[in-house]
Amino acid sequence: MPLYKRGSIYWVDVVAPNGERIRQSAGTEIKSQAREFHDKLKSELWRLSKLGERPRRSWNDAVVRWLKEQSHKATIETDKIHLRWLDAHLSGVMLCSINRRMIDRITEAKLAEGVSNATVNRILEVLRAILRKCVNEWEWLDKAPQVRMLREPTRRIRYLTRDEAKRLISELPPHLADMAAFSLATGLRRANVTGLQWSQVDLDRKIAWIHPDQAKARKAISVPLNVEAVALIQKQLGGHPERIFSYRGRPILQVSTKAWYRALERAGIEDFRWHDLRHTWASWHVQAGTPLFALQEMGGWESSEMVRRYAHLAADHLAPYADRLESLMINN
Length: 332
Description:
It is built from 14 helices and 8 strands. It is mainly alpha-helical. It has 3 domains: 3-50, no CATH class; 59-136; 162-316, hpI Integrase, Chain A (Orthogonal Bundle), CATH 1.10.443.10. A 3-stranded antiparallel beta sheet has the order 1-2-3, with helices on one face. The protein has a 3-stranded antiparallel beta sheet with strand order 4-5-6.
């Protein structure tokens, strides 16, 4: 039976030229539309088999497949936000119709909202990734248009000095002060600190661990705990049965609160985010001589490129070469 119903929706039952049987929803309650969908699907399957033609796919088809295959990504919710914005520009558009001019219009539309080049680039990165999948893996396109990124200013690494860190912690309310100090001691991301559970720490071995589904790179992270980190965890005993950091018996979900920003202002610290505590931890480690490969493992970075951002802070090994040049100048 080529057409049948499941509930009120028509489905089609088609046998492809290669013998494969395909059952697919027509997405309609109207029989004539379902019949049209059936005939179109059967025609596309024949042309694909006999003439080697690819079926025409829409941007919506690509988005559905992307979300299904990338559901494991730590940043999938951010992708969804970008895709919802792109829907106004690409919904219903056939993939083969997406060209350089259309992408430029998308770029201009986002810039018109007054956002930064970096914000525009995050949207363009998702668009580019999907188009590349269409070419390289799904074979839905022979080629994809080039997605040109906008120039972004190089962001310097923002970190605190020891004195600044002490001032900030002294100005924070106790529950945030403990979490900030723990972040400086371990380098853990905000979500990993707020979500850390008692079952994830072993104080005897002085170690904590982040499960793969909690890590940005989706790989387990082993976190060595120094004396300060252990003391901060012990301080939380009796606060909450599951979560380590809590406030008045409840888990802490937000840290970038009014209390955080007011403490920064009182401490005289500008242009500083909670995530910069992680930058501070990494910077202090490099300045203390921790090798970059060790820092990468401790911080759970997937790429060594991310760790090289801190390499310029470890120039001690270059000092002998600088002194050598100075002695030559003196001898002359």
